[in-house]
Structure formats: structure tokens, C-alpha cells
């Protein structure tokens, strides 16, 4: 007789998901929620978004324009794409068409997904610079592509100074060797998460030269574009010779305006590329929250009028975050967790070698050492951070497993609480 309890015997999982089920954030967010007293792990501010932005959201939500509760244009709310075109046109020195050169996405995460799905075919290779934001690799694989990795390699600073993210550099010959006739794209993340490296003009020109030579696309993840310190300059690779026509720039209101939960992102690029990004968007997410887009558009209107002025949020935010960076650098250095001073982002990587005696090696474990250290630290000390090896390919994880990534976009009280934990820990050693 027919059984309603009969189970399916054939595999149900799509083959492209093979091996992609594990996710660092699912595991460590749960650990932080369970054990942490201070969470410097996941990358989001615990201070409020600027008042002008939240007031714009409340006004859009409660105002008389009832159409803000309905669908807007699928590829971006007209006021938002218009001001983004004005803003980035100013930065790039070119006229941008808001309807064809800009598209709004559900955060930068969806923008990345759209790029990989739009341009990567079975057998295509995509160059990823290590350490990399962890979603790049699975997104390449889900599109049928093959990730090819090239590492930033640290060079010890002179005179016993603390290492800077600038000390982590690409080897030009090694980078050039990764390009082949199968290379479809390279993913650039500057400022880089997790290191905080801001790629110099010379480094970007090297990448641009190779892209042009091999006719390769560039997916430029620039979500931390305003978070640069010590007088460093964020250079957009699309502004370099030969790169506009082959680059998709990716941005995030979450990082730009300290409102990560709003999930408003965007892509900027030439129409010949954007038309394919739009095709993926219209057949997946299709539409982003109208009210959030309206509020972000008002935020950008404000910033456009204050561009480069002291009252600009894009000027104030990095000044505030640089102070927080320095506060965390001092706390870590004081206890012997050697920080790598970031030039950008709100992340800081620190060497945990001097604390290894607290968490002995386990030859039976197949986990990288920093995974086990981070889990032990949150469970026993109440301090949450992310293992750096999570930002490396499987083949290279154990080469960089003596580091943790901390987020310093936190209230001063949160950073003080972290410092207290570290000081107490040092005294116990």
C-alpha cells in the first residue's frame, strides 16, 4: 500500500552546494551569543547610526507618502540611484547614468552574488587575494567557477615596530602567474577585511595592468571605502586607465552609515556589465526595501552637500574609528597580543603566539589552531573574536593560524571591558 511515510531515496542537495554547508558566522555568532561578555567578533557597530539617517528612516516610514510602503523600481529607488550616480560620478570624474550605471542590492552580499552569477561560467577561474572575506570562495564555486588564490605575505617591520597592514604585500611575479586564459575575474577588496590593508596606487596599477593584459574583469568590493586612517587614501581601481570598462564597484550603506541591519548595497559600473548584473537581480531578489532606500538616499544627499567638509559623516566617522583603533591596539599590545595596525576598515588582526600556552596544540584535532583558541577564549574568558584562518583557503589555513580578528567599531565602554578582560588574563598567566 502507498505509504505517506516513505522517504526520498535519491539525493536532494544540488551538487553546487557540496562542501559549502559550513559557515564561520553561524558557528561563532552562536558561541558569542551563548558565552561572550564582550563581543569583538562579528563586524557591526554597537553604537547608533547617525541621527540624520535614523530621522530620515522614521520620516519615510511615518510620512504622508504612502507609496514608500510599496514596490519601487526593481533596480533601485529613483532618488537613491540618482544621488549615487551624482556622488560616484564626482569621485570617478565621469558622468554616470542612474538608470544604467547603478543598481541597488540587498547589501553588498547580494551585489557580490549577482556578480559571480552574472559573469562566472563552468570552468572559469576567479582570482581571490588571501586573506579574503569568506563568502567569495563559496560564491565562486556556486557559480561553477574555480577559485585561484594568491596570498598577501607579511614582511617584518624594522626597528621592532608594530606590524602594519601595509606590511602585507602581493608578490608581483606570483600574482602574474595566477592569470591565464581561463581567468574570468579577480576579486579586489580594498580596504581589506580582515587585515585592514588599503591597497596603494602602485599595487592597484599592477592589478589593473594584469586585468587589461589578460582581458579580465574586476569585482571591486569597496564597502569600507570611507574607513581609512592616518592620512591614507582610498583609490578606486575603476578610476585607473583601462579599468572602468571591466570593473563592477560594490558598496554598502551598512558600512558607510553604520547601519548594517538595513541591508542596502549597490553596484556601480558600465552598462555593458550592469545589464547582466540586473538580469541576476531581477530573477532572484528582484526588489529591495523601499523605505530603507529612501532613507539612504537622503543620507547621501546630505553627504553630497557636505562633501569634504568637517561636518560630513564620511569625515567624522573615520576620525572616531581611528581613536577606537588606537585604543584597542594599546590594549592588545599591553598584554602581548601583537596587533597588526590596520590602515582601514574597522577590523584589527592580532598575533596570539604569546598566549599559546593557555591552549595547547591538539594533534588529534583537524581544526586550525586559531579556531580552537577563539572557541576556548570565548568560553573561558568571555571575549569573542574571529580566527584569521577562516579567511583563507583550505590549503593555506594552517599557514596563518596564530592570529585573531577583532572588530573595534564599538562603544568606548565595550572596548574598555575587552581591555579589562585582557589585563586580568595577563595577570593570571
From TrEMBL:
It comes from the Eukaryota. One of its GO terms (molecular function) is cysteine-S-conjugate beta-lyase activity. It holds the Pfam family Aminotran_1_2. SUPFAM superfamilies: PLP-dependent transferases. Homodimer. Pathway: Amino-acid degradation; L-kynurenine degradation; kynurenate from L-kynurenine: step 1/2. This is Kynurenine--oxoglutarate transaminase 1. Belongs to the class-I pyridoxal-phosphate-dependent aminotransferase family. Keywords: Aminotransferase, Lyase, Pyridoxal phosphate, Transferase. Residues 37-418 form the Aminotransferase class I/classII large domain. It catalyses: an S-substituted L-cysteine + H2O = a thiol + pyruvate + NH4(+); L-kynurenine + 2-oxoglutarate = kynurenate + L-glutamate + H2O. The keyword Transferase applies. CDD domains: AAT_like. Transmembrane segments: none annotated. InterPro entries: Aminotransferase_I/II_large, Kynurenine-oxoglutarate_AT, PyrdxlP-dep_Trfase, PyrdxlP-dep_Trfase_major, PyrdxlP-dep_Trfase_small. Its cofactor is pyridoxal 5'-phosphate. One of its GO terms (cellular component) is mitochondrion. GO terms for biological process: kynurenine metabolic process.
Amino acid at each position: 500500500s502507498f505509504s505517506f511515510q516513505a522517504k526520498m531515496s535519491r539525493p536532494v542537495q544540488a551538487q553546487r552546494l557540496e562542501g559549502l554547508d559550513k559557515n564561520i558566522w553561524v558557528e561563532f555568532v552562536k558561541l558569542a551569543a551563548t558565552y561572550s561578555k564582550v563581543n569583538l567578533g562579528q563586524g557591526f557597530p554597537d553604537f547608533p547610526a547617525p541621527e540624520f539617517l535614523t530621522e530620515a528612516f522614521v520620516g519615510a516610514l511615518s510620512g504622508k507618502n504612502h507609496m514608500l510602503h510599496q514596490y519601487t523600481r526593481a533596480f533601485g529607488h529613483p532618488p537613491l540611484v540618482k544621488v549615487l550616480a551624482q556622488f560616484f560620478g564626482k569621485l570617478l570624474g565621469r558622468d554616470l547614468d542612474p538608470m544604467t550605471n547603478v543598481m541597488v542590492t540587498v547589501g553588498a552580499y547580494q551585489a557580490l552574488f549577482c556578480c559571480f552569477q552574472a559573469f562566472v561560467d563552468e570552468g572559469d577561474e576567479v582570482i581571490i587575494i588571501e586573506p579574503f572575506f569568506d563568502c567569495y570562495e563559496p560564491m565562486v564555486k556556486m557559480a561553477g567557477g574555480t577559485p585561484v588564490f594568491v596570498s598577501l605575505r607579511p614582511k617584518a617591520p624594522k626597528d621592532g615596530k608594530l606590524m602594519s597592514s601595509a606590511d602585507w604585500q602581493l608578490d608581483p611575479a606570483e600574482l602574474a602567474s595566477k592569470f591565464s586564459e581561463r581567468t574570468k575575474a579577480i576579486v579586489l577588496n580594498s580596504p581589506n577585511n580582515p587585515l585592514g590593508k588599503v591597497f596603494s596606487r602602485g599595487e592597484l596599477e599592477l592589478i589593473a595592468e594584469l586585468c587589461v593584459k589578460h582581458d579580465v574583469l574586476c569585482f571591486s568590493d569597496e564597502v569600507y571605502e570611507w574607513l581609512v586612517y592616518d592620512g591614507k587614501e582610498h583609490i578606486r581601481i575603476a578610476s585607473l586607465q583601462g579599468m572602468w570598462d571591466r570593473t563592477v564597484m560594490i558598496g554598502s550603506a551598512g558600512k558607510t552609515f553604520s547601519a548594517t541591519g538595513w541591508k542596502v548595497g549597490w553596484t556601480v559600473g558600465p552598462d555593458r556589465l550592469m545589464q547582466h548584473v540586473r538580469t541576476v537581480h531581477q530573477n532572484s531578489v528582484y526588489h529591495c526595501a523601499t523605505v530603507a532606500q529612501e532613507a539612504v538616499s537622503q543620507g547621501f544627499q546630505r553627504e553630497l552637500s557636505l562633501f569634504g567638509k568637517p561636518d560630513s559623516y564620511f569625515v567624522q566617522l573615520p576620525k572616531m574609528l581611528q581613536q577606537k583603533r588606537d585604543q584597542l591596539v594599546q590594549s592588545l599590545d599591553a598584554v602581548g597580543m601583537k596587533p597588526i595596525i590596520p590602515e582601514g576598515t574597522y577590523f584589527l588582526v592580532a598575533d596570539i603566539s604569546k598566549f599559546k600556552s593557555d591552549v595547547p596544540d591538539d594533534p588529534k584535532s583537524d581544526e586550525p589552531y586559531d579556531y580552537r583558541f577563539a572557541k576556548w577564549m570565548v568560553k573561558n574568558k568571555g571575549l569573542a573574536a574571529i580566527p584569521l584562518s577562516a579567511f583563507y583557503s583550505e590549503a593555506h589555513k594552517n599557514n596563518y593560524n596564530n592570529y585573531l580578528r577583532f572588530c573595534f567599531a564599538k562603544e568606548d565602554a565595550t572596548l574598555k571591558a575587552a581591555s579589562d578582560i585582557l589585563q586580568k588574563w595577563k595577570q593570571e598567566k
